[in-house]
């Protein structure tokens, strides 16, 4: 944190000492060198809303009383260092005159607007000047989060920070705090047990993912990570590769690899055109020795897949199938038995067929996927025995696991008055809400839509993904 960087960002949940850490660093630096600090918030009605009290307490904690003079509205050092306070939202014009400060520290930066950010950054322009931001994330579209955290989130989730020549972004939590009060630790553990979704936001430092109609809950996904190891079974069965060639120019391509119930990899990329992506997908499938290759047959990329298929699969036993998200449900006359009756309640479950339950195949297989995650959570967390063939395991080695988890918990139901069929928000509808298209999660969903196989004597055989032979 003492390393010079133009922009320093610390975010995370409660108990991570973000504010106190910045205060300590600011005071230590200002005690050794003349530094002018401008301590800001988006909203500040009085000095009590600022970090003045925190700085005052840390002066005493650090034993720096002989280095600073604490006044009612500012703090000054014996070397002419100074700490002043201000707000951005109602005083943005006056901020433009604050160009003589060495550091602008914005506390509770989750509330900072795009306008405030665009004004502040060029204002603090002294040689060697820095901008500090500390906050608990709120929404993904928050200006500071969107600009400085979201682009590097995967790397941050992997190693805890992102760094380049100008920017340092660190994620901290109560687990990083060696002085964490026992009361706060107990509260965090209790919340994690009782309300995992709330814990992710309050203590885990994630954005508020309170999607009321989400099909899959965060704790289900966490339970599924390396579930085959947690439950002690080895994956076996067919190998499936699923591919989303992207149905619009702004979508990423995506691909998943499944072995039995184990999702071994799930990737997305934006580079290259659809033809290049299709060639890559088929090459990956052949290298993976896939039994099935399933692709999204709706949109701009589907035609390219079909064209490539005619020239590349000769002599290969891999079964290639198009998945029509808007098609009628599979097995329309079979009775649907929910894996989670409480989470997906429906009247007359005993006699509702797939045709009477799902709006289309996409809804059907997303609910099937939700059932798998729910059953896996029950097996891992509740100790219930369930057929491994009905579960799902996500490899912890998936490079984009964080993005995949995020996509899985954001797919929501769409409720229409007078229509009891389960249907989902479309990708276009999700984009309008600022939710990224769940391309990786869609390939995961499609991976369990592999076709039935029929033997030569016409007996129907369902390909097993169970560890039991």
TrEMBL record:
Cite the Pfam families for this sequence.
Terminase_3, Terminase_3C
On the tree of life, the source organism's domain of life is Bacteria
Looking at the record, the residues that make up the Phage terminase large subunit C-terminal domain are 247-449
* Domain annotation Phage terminase large subunit N-terminal: ranges: 5-206
**What residue intervals traverse the membrane?**
none
Query: What's this protein's name?
Result: Terminase
| Source organism of the structure | Candidatus Williamhamiltonella defendens
């Amino acid at each position: 944190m003492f390393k010079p960087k133009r922009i320093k960002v610390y975010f995370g949940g409660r108990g991570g000492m973000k504010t106190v850490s910045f205060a300590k660093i600011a005071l230590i630096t200002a005690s050794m060198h003349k530094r002018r600090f401008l301590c800001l918030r988006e909203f500040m009605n009085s000095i009590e809303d600022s970090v003045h009290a925190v700085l005052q307490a840390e002066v005493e904690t650090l034993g720096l009383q002989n280095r600073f003079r604490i006044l009612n509205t500012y703090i000054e050092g014996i070397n002419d260092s100074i700490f002043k306070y201000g707000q951005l939202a109602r005083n943005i014009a006056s901020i433009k005159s604050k160009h003589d400060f060495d550091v602008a520290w914005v506390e509770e930066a989750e509330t900072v607007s795009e306008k405030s950010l665009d004004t502040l950054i060029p204002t603090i322009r002294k040689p060697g000047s820095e901008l500090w931001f500390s906050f608990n994330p709120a929404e993904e579209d928050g200006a500071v989060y969107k600009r400085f955290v979201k682009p590097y989130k995967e790397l941050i989730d992997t190693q805890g920070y992102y760094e380049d020549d100008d920017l340092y972004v660190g994620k901290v939590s109560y687990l990083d705090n060696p002085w964490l009060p026992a009361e706060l630790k107990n509260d965090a553990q209790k919340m994690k047990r009782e309300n995992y979704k709330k814990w992710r936001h309050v203590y885990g430092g994630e954005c508020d993912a309170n999607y009321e109609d989400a099909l899959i809950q965060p704790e289900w996904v966490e339970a599924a990570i390396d579930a085959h190891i947690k439950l002690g079974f080895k994956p076996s069965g067919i190998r499936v590769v699923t591919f989303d060639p992207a149905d619009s120019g702004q979508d990423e391509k995506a691909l998943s690899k499944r072995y039995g119930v184990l999702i071994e990899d799930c990737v997305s990329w934006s580079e290259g055109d659809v033809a290049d992506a299709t060639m890559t997908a088929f090459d990956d499938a052949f290298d993976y020795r896939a039994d099935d290759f399933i692709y999204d047959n709706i949109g701009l990329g589907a035609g390219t897949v079909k064209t490539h298929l005619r020239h590349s699969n000769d002599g290969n036993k891999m079964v290639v199938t198009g998945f029509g998200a808007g098609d009628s449900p599979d097995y329309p006359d079979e009775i649907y038995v929910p894996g989670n009756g409480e989470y997906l309640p429906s009247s007359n479950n005993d006699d509702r067929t797939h045709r009477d339950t799902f709006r289309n195949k996409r809804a059907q297989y997303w609910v099937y996927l939700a059932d798998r995650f729910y059953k896996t959570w029950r097996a891992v967390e509740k100790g219930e025995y369930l057929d491994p063939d009905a579960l799902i395991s996500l490899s912890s080695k998936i490079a984009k696991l964080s993005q995949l988890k995020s996509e899985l918990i954001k797919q929501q139901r769409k409720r229409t008055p007078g229509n009891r069929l389960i249907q989902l928000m479309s990708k276009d509808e999700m984009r309008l809400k600022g939710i990224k298209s769940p391309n990786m999660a869609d390939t995961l969903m499609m991976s369990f839509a592999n076709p039935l196989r029929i033997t030569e004597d016409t007996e129907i055989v369902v390909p097993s993904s169970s560890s039991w032979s």
